[in-house]
Amino acid sequence: MRKVLQTRTFAKSKKKLHKSQIKELDNVILDILTSPEIGEQKKGDLQGVYVYKCRITKKLFLLAYLFDEESLTLLMVGSQENFYRNLKK
Questions:
Q1: What is the pTM for the complete model shown?
Q2: Which of 2, 22, 45, 50 has the fewest CB atoms lying closer than 10 Å?
């Protein structure tokens, strides 16, 4: 079983969501834990980062994460607007 770690950026973004959205996000995180390759691996500046696109309450959300044998690190969650620009920071 992998440890799930989260960055401060991810925690702040998650805190802004509604309770129902947080429940759906937790289900998405469980899906990623079972098969981490489910997301799209990025190239260039974001090499090694995976981004998974999911619908939470009919809105498109992107979830960026890293993983290895022991851990899954949740980097950022948010809408598509300026997502990659903010992720590079």
A1: 0.93
A2: 45
